Amino acid sequence: MNPVLHHYIAELEFSGELFLDIEKLFNKHNAEATWIHCTRVAHESKALALQFHADPFIAERAGWLHDIGTIIPNEDKVAVARALHIPIIEEELAFPYILHQKLSREMTIQIFGLTDSMLLNAIECHTTLWKSMSLMDKILFIGDKLSWDQAHAAPFVQEIRKNVNDHLLDEAIMIYLNHVWSNKEKMKVVHPWLLEARQSLLKALF
After folding, report:
1. CA 82, CA 183: separation in Å to the nearest integer?
2. From CA 72, how far away is CA 80, in angstroms rounded?
3. Which residues fall within 8 angstroms of residue 164, CB to CB, at 6 or more apart?
4. Average pLDDT score, the chain
């Protein structure tokens, strides 16, 4: 494990039970609310995987793990990412919170020893998606969006849910991507992976 991560797991005794060990990690960093969110994402993602004929085991694990990078404070994310040799783009320097998806992937490998590429890729793009999105990438992305609890997000979350219920996964994704697109002038940054994902889906759907 890269020494930069030692601080974040100091004094933790892992049991080998992934669910319990992730919970311990969040609790150590007083991030119980994020862990509750992750369990909701895991539930949603597992259900979506069963609905769309993907691997529910990987989907559930991806939900548990997707936000572990958030335990690293925003002011430290760039330095930790550099220490882990994670490529960083301009938008991530401007808004380091977005780096949590890349950090979560690397922490999944280094802290928990998981190497399944389907799992890791879904974690790495769960906030933004990316152009070459897999079914598992889409499932975790939508599982994450369906698990938001902000009241102001409710209208488009409800529309996403309706499309999912109608078995329209790509259309559900486009609802969120179009929401970002229509509000891009109000946002600090719009990650290029999200823009590429939107263009890719526009070509596929239309």
Report:
1. 30
2. 8
3. 48, 51, 142, 146, 172
4. 95
pLDDT at residue number 151: 56
Q: Are 29 and 71 in contact (CB under 8 A)?
A: yes
Query: Which residue shows structure tokens 């999912």?
Result: 164
In the numeric block, the tokens 């002038």 are attached to 185
- Least Cα distance to 109 among 120, 125, 98 occurs for 120
**Residues of the chain whose pLDDT is less than 50?**
none
Helix (H, G, I), strand (E, B) or coil at 11: coil
Rounded to an integer, what is the distance from CA 138 to the centroid of its chain? 10
Cα–chain-centroid distance for residue 112? 17
> How many other C-beta atoms lie within 10 A of the C-beta of residue 73?
10
Three-state DSSP class for 81? helix
- Give, for 27, the enclosing helix (H) or strand (E): helix 18-28
Backbone angles phi, psi at 42, to 5 degrees: -60, -45
Token pair of 70, please?
């958030």
pLDDT, tens digit, 9 for 90 and up, residues 158-172 = 999 999 999 999 999
